[in-house]
Structure formats: C-alpha cells, structure tokens
C-alpha cells in the first residue's frame, strides 16, 4: 500500500496517454499511466473515502448519497487528450446503464472551471462532475487503490467499496466489461 501512495503522489501530475513509457526530454507535462485495469474480489474491496464537494453546476455533492447504487467515478481534466478521447464512451455507457441503477460521477481535477464546463458542453456530458482544482479529492484515495494518472476510472459497488479501477482511458467495450459483473452482483 505504501508503494501505491508513492506512485500516486508521483502520478498525480500525470495524464495517461497509453500504457507505454513516458516521453523523454522536453516539457510535455504528461506521464504515461501504467495501463492497469483490474477488478477486486468482493472479499478484498476497500471502502471509498468520504467524498464531498461542489459540482461544476454549483450543486452540493456527497458520494454517500449514491450508496446502494453502482457508481462509475472518472477522474478527468479538460486539458487531457485521453480524457477527451474517452468522454463519448463514458457518456454512452452512462446512458445505457443508468436505468439499471448505475450512476456516473466525474472528478474534474487540476482544471479551470470554465474549461471544464466547456468540455462537458462539447462532449454532451450529462452526469455530474465534482470540482477538484487542486487535486485534493483525488488525494483522498491514497492507500485505497489510488487513481495514479488522469484519466482514471473507479467502479464502486452498492456497498460503497472499490470494485474495479482503470489507470488509463477506457473504451465503451472495456468499461462495460469491468462494470457488468458489479452490476450483476446481488444487492
């Protein structure tokens, strides 16, 4: 777990473009993510930390309000090319699964609010995103399958535990694959 914390601290300045090595030289401001996509057996799942804040629409947000539902939590930023690539896939899967009790929530991290709002309009994102301009919300996941790069996606089960994570951009097919077993679990 300590290694995850160190990796998270180093990776929080990241934007995962692919699973390959980070570019050498120059000021790219990107660090490639590990590309990890993993599911966690129910007996080994850890609870998500307390997560509260304000959405891009100015509404109060508390992740505890989503207890009893499966939640897809995506960490993103408008300046992140892989985030732009995966945004349509996330919205598509959200539209397909929300009638099954699946909720999506974004954490817009280290970003300007106006840029994030423009991103959501451009990609027609209809689920809420919580404002995290300094990366403080992401840091709350330290020691609990910490998102190590941007984008990162966590699937949270109905009991509020982390059931899966992806440390890179996902396609709709990949997201459905890690989401389906969690949705199928008996409440």
Report on this structure:
GO terms for molecular function: antioxidant activity; oxidoreductase activity. One of its GO terms (biological process) is cytochrome complex assembly. This is Thioredoxin domain-containing protein. Residues 42-184 form the Thioredoxin domain. The chain is globular. The protein has one domain (2-17, 29-184): Glutaredoxin (3-Layer(aba) Sandwich). A hairpin with a 5-residue loop joins strand 7 (152-156) and strand 8. The chain is built from 5 helices and 8 strands. Helix 2 (81-97) crosses helix 5 (172-184). The longest helix has 17 residues, at 81-97. Mean pLDDT is 84; it is low at 1-13 and 17-32. The chain has helices at 2-11, 81-97, 113-122, 136-139, 172-184, and strands at residues 37-39, 52-54, 60-62, 70-76, 102-109, 129-132, 152-156, 162-166.
Number of helices: 5
Spatial separation of the terminal alpha carbons: 28 Å
The coarse overall form would be globular
Question: What's the overall average pLDDT, rounded?
Answer: 84
Give the fraction of residues assigned to helices. Answer: 25-40%
How many extended strands?
8
Subcellular location: Cell envelope
GO biological process, one term: cytochrome complex assembly
GO molecular function: antioxidant activity; oxidoreductase activity
GO cellular component, one term: cell envelope
């Amino acid at each position: 777990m300590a290694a995850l914390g160190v990796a998270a601290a180093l990776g929080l300045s990241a934007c995962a473009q692919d699973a390959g090595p980070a570019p050498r030289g120059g000021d790219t401001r990107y660090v490639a993510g590990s590309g990890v996509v993993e599911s966690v057996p129910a007996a080994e799942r850890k609870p998500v930390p307390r997560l509260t804040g304000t959405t891009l629409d100015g509404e109060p947000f508390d992740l505890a309000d989503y207890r009893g539902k499966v939640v897809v939590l995506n960490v993103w930023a408008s300046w992140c090319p892989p985030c732009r690539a995966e945004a349509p896939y996330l919205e598509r899967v959200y539209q397909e699964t929300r009638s099954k009790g699946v909720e999506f929530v974004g954490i817009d991290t280290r970003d300007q609010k106006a840029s994030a709002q423009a991103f959501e309009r451009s990609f027609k994102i209809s689920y809420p995103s919580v404002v995290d301009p300094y990366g403080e919300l992401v840091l709350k996941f330290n020691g609990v399958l910490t998102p190590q790069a941007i984008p990162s996606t966590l699937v949270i089960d109905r009991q509020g535990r982390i059931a899966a994570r992806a440390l890179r951009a996902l396609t709709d097919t990949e997201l459905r694959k890690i989401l389906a077993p969690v949705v199928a679990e008996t409440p």
